[in-house]
Amino acid sequence: MSGRREFVCIRCPLGCNITVETENGGIKSITGNTCPRGADYVTKEMTDPRRTVTSLVRVRGGELPVVSVKTAGDIPKDKIADCIRALKGIELSAPVRIGDPVAENVCGTGVDIVAAANVGQA
Amino acid sequence: MKKDLVIIGGGPAGLAAAIAAKEAGVEDLLVLERDSRLGGILNQCIHNGFGLHTFKEELTGPEYAARYIEKAEALDIPCKLNTMVIDLAAEGGRKRVTVMNRQEGLYEIEARAVILAMGCRERPRGALNIPGYRPAGIYTAGTAQRYVNIEGRMPGREVVVLGSGDIGLIMARRMTLEGAKVKLVAELMPYSGGLKRNIVQCLDDFDIPLKLSHTVVDIKGKERVEGVTIARVDENSKPIPGTEEEVACDTLLLSCGLIPENELSESIGVAINPATGGPFVNESLETDREGVFACGNVLHVHDLVDYVSEESSQAGRNAAAYLQGALAGKGKAISLRAADGIRYTVPASIDVSRMGETQTVRFRVGSVYRDAALEVTCGGRVLKHIDKRVLAPGEMEQVVLKRSELQNIGNSESITFSVRTEKREV
Amino acid sequence: MYDVIVIGAGVSGCAVARELSRYRLRTAVLERACDVCGGTSKANSGVVHAGYDAKPGSLKAKLNVEGSRMMEALSKELDFPYKRNGSLVLCFDEKDLPALRKLYDQGQENGVEGLEILSKEQLKKLEPHVSDRAVAALHAPAGGIVCPFGLTLALAENAAENGVEFRFETEVLKIEKTETGYRIFTDRGTLDARAVVNAAGVYADRFHNMVSEEKIHITPRKGEYCLMDRKVGGLVSHTIFQLPTVYGKGVLVTPTVHGNLLAGPTAIDVEDPESVNTTSEGLEDVMRRAALSVDDLPVKQVITSFAGLRAHEDGNDFIIGQAKGASGFFDAAGIESPGLTCAPALGKYLAKLILEYLPADEKPDFIARRKGIPSMALASLEEKKRLIKENPLYANVICRCELVTEGEILDAIHRPLGATTLDGVKWRTRAGMGRCQAGFCSPKVVEILARELGRDMSEIRKNDGGSRFLTGYDKDGIDG
Fold first, then answer.
1. Which residues of C touch A89 (CB under 8 A)?
2. Which are the contacts of B253, defined by CB distance < 8 A and separation ≥ 6?
3. In terms of residue numbers, what domain contains B348?
4. Does residue A42 sit in the same domain as residue A78?
5. Cβ contacts of A55 on chain B, cutoff 8 Å
6. B63, A65: Cβ pair inside 8 Å?
7. With contacts defined as CB-CB under 8 Å, which chain A residues touch C474?
8. pTM for the predicted model, two decimal places
9. Which of these three, B256, B289, B315, is where a domain ends?
10. What pLDDT band is residue B330 in, cutting at 50, 70 and 90?
């Protein structure tokens, strides 16, 4: 079984068009990348695609009603929706600072959610 | 009030410029910001991907802004918030900045130098001439972004996005993540105006179709949007009859281009480049008004904030040099010509006697090219030839010129930037 | 029991209401929309016609010339934007000169002051950007421009200050003759009145035909417009018309009182009296035909487009006065162009007829003057400083494109007949009218409206009915 998948590398603004040839479920060749990061990117996308997720949680008593949050690292792509669901209902108290913990080990990914903006008290 | 340097705008451009100016020794400076907080539009760009070049890590917009805000605070750079500049005029060698805010009322600041860092605005529906009704539910992507990310409010449930600019792509993902259904993104051109990684991570990841060469030809709904009609367009961007397709939705987001906000620049008589909508600047990022500098999206629309910061730092350093008398009087300058596929260059001219060791020239191409080359020529001589596997209007390009490369060029000569290609992909 | 109920808070209804408010009469204005000037009165050219168009001897001609003469004094009394910029009718073909001459003669007969026919050279001197194709023009220095909403709101606010009740979002469903007058059934209850004024725009035939034996028929005639940035508002200073020819009535190009450039309208008869949608053909047609009048029409400077409906009556004249077989039922129907110009005269004319039917004394305490919302954008530096001293919120800019401050927006909300919607704020203050078309200021205006009206942001609407901006909170659609 051989196949072919096309990717646009997003590790840098260059956006290399990378072609991956597969054989028997494994990667046979990677072409089109101009640096090792491209090969690394497509390998990850083929085997374990991960994303950083950003969203919002509510803030009580803040100058703004919500604060943006992010996963402290990448989580598996198929966990994105679960991660957002886990954020529903969370409310922090102002003030909130960048890096403040929001949720631990989100959806069993081993990755924490942290505040990604500063929100002062109202 | 008198100031050596007034910086109009406290977004990423204004902050980077102020920090660089202060570090270069300008003590008497002031940042004027119209919003209630510093950071500008970055505050509502809560997605990540900022700062890879500057900080070698991926930050969200507010995190990136916070780094600069904290630096400005550490350097004791005075900033006035909720303060609107309502006029900018030249008086002799001085600049008169008329401002108003709630606390201090209306007053004038006399400045020796000014840095323009007002950013840009989005092209509205009217400018796109989309026919149909005028119901609630039509927003520019940035307005929707503010509702969602700052207010925590959803501007709609079922969404069509017109235009594949970066904010539109980002908002397609944001709206999806927050529970809306994004039906499709329609793009007038045969290629996207957004960054590749945004197409991959904002659309492909969520199976949102990108319909290239499509536009919205009708808006339905008298009170709230009830649907739009999209149609395929021909090579002249004209809708092709018979290709219409109705899409039910309650929201239409527009991401159809950004326009530098240069009304103040024009009030002081700065010449505007029609290709960018921003001022013509020289190597020092100085406009044709002496002592008036420009940087960031007011100068030309960027895709990466890292380059905004870099450019703005340069503007800040140059303004400092100007104030310190170190920016020698203008000699003749080499003019930079954009030709064959290049839409513009920033700067538009280089005075070799005033440039640093290197000069970064930024520009955009007019359409998509594959396996092409960027060429910089003077007369018949090729100064630079850079092979490019792909060039696209959505991605700003840059070429770094060394002083040594320009030394032998006469100041009345011009150098030309062009795309060399056999194949041009549409 | 009301003495008079006016149906429709457009310019005609508000003009009549204001005139009636001089007298001891209990008057109410019923309006289907949530604000004044929601229909035909809003979306038009904003032109104060000099009066050479109407047929000599007609009521239209009389009211037009009178209205045009009244407008300047009224604009001072009621503080709304008006400018006598003069108008020009371009003639593109020597063959059409007799038609131009006829227009001149007609104007003379109607009593229009200052008319003159200009040669090509005189025309170019007066308006350098007018097309070289124009061979001559009729110049009417009496022509002017007005803010249609500003005029209507000024009349309405003044009427309200003098005791007229305004009931918005109240749709008249049925009218029945009673012993004492009329019973009006609305979606918000039933009201009785001794007299009724039918100023219902494109719906006026409906109400007329409920009570009168002589039926009328109104056709909504759509007109599409393109509005251009203030940057190019100075391209022409006069209102530039095209001489009607066999090829059509032509479109106008005019500066607006707010300094924009306006081109339009088309004229297409439509079925649906709600179809204020623009069409790609219509907008293209406007710009194509406008380009005949003016060289280098800045098509790229269009910031918005809109469509309005004129209430065209089949008989092609205004229907003003008591309806046949329906004493006490007064029509102001079929009021299409130059209805805006006529409004002040129409108000007086119709009020006089109503007073003959329902005699009433003048009120000694009638307040004739009204002060509008101050405009920071138009104020001089000294005025700006004075206003800010009075209220620092006049220094807090909300709409950057048109320089509208929080102070002005609060004025708009808290005045009699105050704004309750984003469009209400926009039409009163111009917040959101500028080149970004409310991109930056609308979230702020929504927030201010919610705060001042004591509502949640989600309840704030663009204008009528279900025109809400927000549909909920983030993650509403996600099961937690």
1. 480
2. B139, B140, B141, B144, B159, B160, B161, B162, B168, B171, B172, B175
3. 331-426
4. no
5. 46, 177-178
6. no
7. 55-56, 66
8. 0.94
9. B256
10. low
Nearest-angstrom CA–CA distance, C182 and B333? 82
- B143 and B222 in a single domain? The answer is yes
CB pairs under 8 A between B and C: 153
Q: Nearest C-alpha of chain C: how many angstroms from B26?
A: 29
Whether A35 and chain B come into contact, CB under 8 Å, resolves to: no
Q: What is the CATH number of the domain that holds B354?
A: 2.60.40
Cα angle A20, A26, A32 (rounded to 5 degrees) comes to 15
Q: Does C364 touch chain B (CB under 8 A)?
A: no
Same domain (yes/no): A14, A37: yes
Q: Based on the domain organization, do A92 and A71 belong to the same domain?
A: yes
Query: First vs last Cα of chain C: how many Å apart?
Result: 55
- Give the whole-angstrom CA distance, residue C186 versus residue C183: 10
The residue of chain A nearest to residue B69, with distances taken between CA atoms, is: A118
Looking at the DSSP bridge assignments, the partners of residue B101 are: B105
Read off the CATH number of the domain in which B166 is found: 3.50.50.60
According to DSSP, the β-strands at C165-167 and B29-32 are unpaired
Any CB–CB contact under 8 A between C426 and chain B? no
Interface probe with C: pick from A88, A91, A113, most Cβ of C within 10 Å: A88
Residue bearing tokens 């205006």? C445
Specify whether A32 is located in the same domain as A66. Answer: no
The ranges assigned to domains in chain C are 84-144+219-311, 381-459
The tens digit of pLDDT for each residue in B268-282 reads: 999 999 999 999 999
CATH assignment, C381-459: 1.10.10.1100
Q: Which of B394-403, C80-89, C118-127, C382-391 has the lowest mean pLDDT?
A: B394-403
What residues of B are in contact with residue A65 (Cβ under 8 Å)?
Answer: 151-152
Q: List the domain range (segments joined by +) for residue A14.
A: 2-47
Is domain C84-144+219-311 in CATH 3.30.9.10, yes or no? yes
